[in-house]
Amino acid sequence: MQSMADAETADTFGCHALVGGTPKVSFWTRRKAIDTITAGHADSHQLKKTLSWPHLVALGVGAIVGTGIYTLTGVGAGLAGPGVILSFLIAGAVCACAALCYAELSTMIPASGSAYTYSYAAMGEPVAWFVGWSLILEYTLVCAAVAVGWSAHAHGLFKMIGFPDALLAGPHQGGLINMPAVFISMAVAGLLALGTRESATVNMVLVFVKIIALIVFVVLCLPAFNLAHFTPFMPNGFQAHVPEGAAADAAKVGVMAAASLIFFAFYGFDAVSTAAEETKNPKRDLTIGIVGSMAVCTAIYMIVAAVSIGASRTEVFSKSEAPLVFILESLNHGKIAQLVALAAVIALPTVILAFMYGQSRIFFVMARDGLLPRALSKVNAKTGTPVMMTLLTGVLAAVISGLLSLKDIAELANAGTLWAFIAVGASVILLRLREPNRPRVFSTPLWPIVAPAGILGCLYLFLSLPGKTQLYFLYAHLIGAVVYLAYGMRKSVLAQQERA
């Protein structure tokens, strides 16, 4: 009788799947075996287990609560008006479906790599490559977007110490390069390179600062709450559409257009899954980290969005790059506004830290699998971290954040994330059908409904993105296809084992 592990090994190396005991050629010729997915790597390519569930919850909250609430609340309100609350609800519901799927897969496959690793086990190497490429797009661009958001809050500080205007804004704003964004990208990369536990501990402290600042904002704005600000509730309608009289390539507006952008504000829980190999008790702690961080952050977002609209009209605060600070100043809380801005300056780097951490691990695992040069997956003996990949991620984020605008970066990051979430939902469905009896520490409730709902929701949000964003996403993946065909397809570990 062939064991489950033997059957998967046959599928991985012999390009077969067992169906009713009869070998059948698989469409996806290379799949990782779940039972041996982290085995066989030398110590120099293994990550150290240093994290527990409080670190993971803080990592998730640190990743989720950031530029989305401090900055994109205003951008979303400009697209949807008060209906931005529905945008938050829709984006949160889609992310909740994805989070439940992530929780099942991360506890069943406790390995770094997130959606890339799950896709490798469920759908094969070609799909895994493109999911990994989407994650690279997501994580690097998120780091860059948050760096730009941080720069908006730190602008006054850098100007005070003598930075010229040309070095405080990118070309899209008439400057040369956004140096504050470059600075924070490289500073966070340096912190991560020092060690995972050290950076996670700093992250926990900064997350606490960030949450306190949001509580202060809510308390001070509640007395000014005015229900009249919620009328008209959806001035630009529900469906994503280009406004009448605008150019065909103009940005879409409406509740769904805002949801497709605000989606950026919700994801971050997937960064928790990239910490699987560094978690002491992954079967328990990953579920707490993923589901717990999503629950906490959804509540925070809904409250802050509602209070923002109640305290100020959307057409007013939507024009500000730092809307929460703007609202406090308009209510004559100037000193508190400065403290909230300072809290954002101090705490927004937690988002960069979480996503840069995740990106370096995605790079690391793809290099360890041979889809990228394996030399990049070397772990530093002292810190237990992939220093080279971490610094490379920092450089990429610094270049992008120094030159591009927040909105363009966020929308393109969303495109990559949406396709990664689609792959996770599809992986849950395929593994449920192919291996229904495999032990699952956490089971996605009502998976035949939740997983397809997550997939369809992500497709709808993707179609609500601007046409140019979808086009850029296609171009990025055409480049990815060339890289895979020229290098990864021949150099992957599985390809070499097949030739052996």
UniProtKB/TrEMBL annotation:
<feature type="transmembrane region" description="Helical">
    <location>
        <begin position="176"/>
        <end position="195"/>
    </location>
</feature>
<dbReference type="GO" id="GO:0016020">
    <property type="term" value="C:membrane"/>
</dbReference>
<feature type="transmembrane region" description="Helical">
    <location>
        <begin position="85"/>
        <end position="105"/>
    </location>
</feature>
<feature type="transmembrane region" description="Helical">
    <location>
        <begin position="412"/>
        <end position="433"/>
    </location>
</feature>
<keyword id="KW-1133">Transmembrane helix</keyword>
<protein>
    <submittedName>
        <fullName>Amino acid permease family protein</fullName>
    </submittedName>
</protein>
<keyword id="KW-0813">Transport</keyword>
<feature type="transmembrane region" description="Helical">
    <location>
        <begin position="336"/>
        <end position="358"/>
    </location>
</feature>
<feature type="transmembrane region" description="Helical">
    <location>
        <begin position="445"/>
        <end position="465"/>
    </location>
</feature>
<feature type="transmembrane region" description="Helical">
    <location>
        <begin position="387"/>
        <end position="406"/>
    </location>
</feature>
<feature type="transmembrane region" description="Helical">
    <location>
        <begin position="290"/>
        <end position="311"/>
    </location>
</feature>
<dbReference type="InterPro" id="IPR002293">
    <property type="entry name" value="AA/rel_permease1"/>
</dbReference>
<feature type="transmembrane region" description="Helical">
    <location>
        <begin position="471"/>
        <end position="489"/>
    </location>
</feature>
<feature type="transmembrane region" description="Helical">
    <location>
        <begin position="250"/>
        <end position="269"/>
    </location>
</feature>
<keyword id="KW-0812">Transmembrane</keyword>
<feature type="transmembrane region" description="Helical">
    <location>
        <begin position="207"/>
        <end position="230"/>
    </location>
</feature>
<feature type="transmembrane region" description="Helical">
    <location>
        <begin position="56"/>
        <end position="79"/>
    </location>
</feature>
<dbReference type="Pfam" id="PF13520">
    <property type="entry name" value="AA_permease_2"/>
</dbReference>
<feature type="transmembrane region" description="Helical">
    <location>
        <begin position="126"/>
        <end position="150"/>
    </location>
</feature>
<dbReference type="GO" id="GO:0015171">
    <property type="term" value="F:amino acid transmembrane transporter activity"/>
</dbReference>
<keyword id="KW-0472">Membrane</keyword>
